Amino acid sequence: MQHYLSLQDIDSLPQWVDEAKSLKAAPQQYKTLGAGKTICLLFFNNSLRTRLSTQKAAMNLGMDVIVMNFGSEGWALEYADGSIMDQGTSEHIKEAAQVVAQYCDVVAIRAFATLTDKEQDKAEVVLNGFKKYAGIPVINMESSVGHPLQALADAITLSEHNTKKRPKVVLSWAPHPKALPHAVANSFVEMMQLQEADFVITHPKGYELDPAITKSSTIEYNQDRALEDADFVYVKNWSSYEDYGKVLNQDKNWTMTAKKLGKAQFMHCLPVRRNVVVADEVLDGVRSLVIQQANNRTYAAQIVLKKILGTL
Ligand code: CP
């Protein structure tokens, strides 16, 4: 069974990017592929882009779509085996996943990290619970650890705007008042490790991502040095991984400005806090690719769904 849970489920990133660009050129070309098939989108957390782009992608392939805001409208789920459910949870993932699977052919799930329990987050209990019990393909619409649909859209966007054989791409941490998950940064790092590029991660000390994900990627603590001669700058906040889920500093010197960006093109997954993460002048400027990134979410989801539909 083909799932899309992480970047590891892509057999050839360049090929998927090319196929996604072909879908973008003619989005309705496989309009009958998903006829008679249903996708269920389950949101345990808020969304704008993921919800609408995944729905649009499914519609482009002729699928029917059911959407449920599980986090606010579903029963509180239990994940532990053998638990005595006399506290807050009302339904076990074993029944819930099997029930959902009777109503659809593919299930897509958004379930963010708690940022309070590192081991539970790493276990991906929601995503893996559905994978274990639903018996149908599962798509990750942002889990505790990764956001592979975003990273695939980012790969499409890079491919469309890159003119060099080996561009310099920088992932730059930014300040934020709230503790945010690591998922977007993790998947961007994993995606960049599949690219031919000079890739640099920059953040203040204490904001190291999971070393099992960054592996041998270059980390430069001096942001100015990291940004030198950059072609693309991907800005994102994340909370501490080591001091799990903590906001260690909100140093405004890390906010992306036009001066820091220089001639590079600016990327961010959105939503973004203006003049905290990035200055207005950058977001509103000609070097910003954020709207194109959001557009490419549709074709990232569409190539994933096309691959999965081909296996049903
Ligand atoms: N980038 C992204 O996943 O956006 P949403 O949270 O709005 O879906």
Describe the protein's architecture and organization.
The protein is built from 13 helices and eleven strands. It has helices at 13-25, 49-60, 70-73, 93-103, 118-123, 125-134, 148-161, 183-192, 211-214, 223-227, 258-261, 280-283, 290-309; strands spanning 38-43, 64-68, 77-78, 91-92, 106-110, 138-140, 168-173, 198-202, 218-219, 232-236, 265-267. α11 links the parallel β10 and β11 (265-267). α2 (49-60) crosses α13. 44% of the residues are buried. The model has no long low-confidence stretch (mean pLDDT 97). The protein binds phosphoric acid mono(formamide)ester.
Quickly list its features.
38% helix, five-stranded parallel sheet, four-stranded parallel sheet, globular, alpha/beta, 312 residues, 13 helices, binds phosphoric acid mono(formamide)ester
Quick take:
By secondary structure, the protein is of the alpha/beta class. The protein is built from 13 helices and 11 strands.
SS-based class = alpha/beta
Q: Looking at the structure, what is the overall shape?
A: globular
Rg measurement, Å: 19 Å
Gap from first CA to last CA? 9 Å
What share of the residues does DSSP label as strand, in percent? Answer: 5-15%
Overall strand count: 11
Portion in helices = 25-40%
Low-confidence stretches: none
Order of helices and strands: HEHEHEEHEHHEHEHEHEHEHEHH
